[in-house]
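Appendix B, Record 12. Input sequence as logged:
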Amino acid sequence: MPTLDITVEQVIRLVQQLPLEGKKAVLEILQNELVNQENPWLKIAGKYQDDPQFDEMLAYIEANRQELNDQEEPK
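Logged structural output:
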């Protein structure tokens, strides 16, 4: 497919000129493209699910966070 050298504003003006069904078709195509984009967060999802030290690490982080919060509270 050839690449067109037009601005976003020009595309918007062209889409605005379409009948309602044409606008719906453009919207559907754009939504499908957005939904089908690869989500970089999904690449690491579940990375630590089998790590036996993960729960211990989370507890350490929580304890450290609580300690910092306690230090910040006015006495």
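The chain has a mean pLDDT of 91.
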